[in-house]
Write a structure and sequence with these properties.
The chain is mainly beta. The chain has a single domain (2-130), classed as Rieske [2Fe-2S] iron-sulphur domain (Rieske Iron-sulfur Protein). Helices cover 0% and strands 36% of the residues. The chain is built from no helices and twelve strands. The chain has a four-stranded antiparallel β-sheet, with no helix packed on it. β3 and β4 (35-39) form a beta hairpin. It starts with a strand and ends with a strand.
Amino acid sequence: MSAVIPTCEWTAICHIDEIPSLGARIVQRMHAEDIALFKASDNHVFAVVDRCPHKGGPLSSGLVHGHAVTCPLHSWTINLENGQAHAPDEGCARKLNVKVEDGRVYLDLDSKGKNLPIAGQCGFPSSIDRP
């Protein structure tokens, strides 16, 4: 087996102004979980699967503070930079690569519209072995 590092397939999603400050926008996908785009007060944009690792609550409905979001169901706080739950809670929301260029927000999606795990994030290996 050889290690293959996934390449980025950037997909334009929206203009940064379409994401409310300290809020979220949902990106719906066919046959895949929804993605929540978050914009912090410093205009930094984050993307995670819109599902709390605790009980599956919609993170997009949570309160954004700093670079974190608090789930509306049971108040778990998720770090938007790495997807990890703040202690003492344990769990991880799947994070997606996101970039902003000329005001446009792009997500790193594979050709089927499903995200690949980010290397080294949430216990995923730094490279992905494929047969």
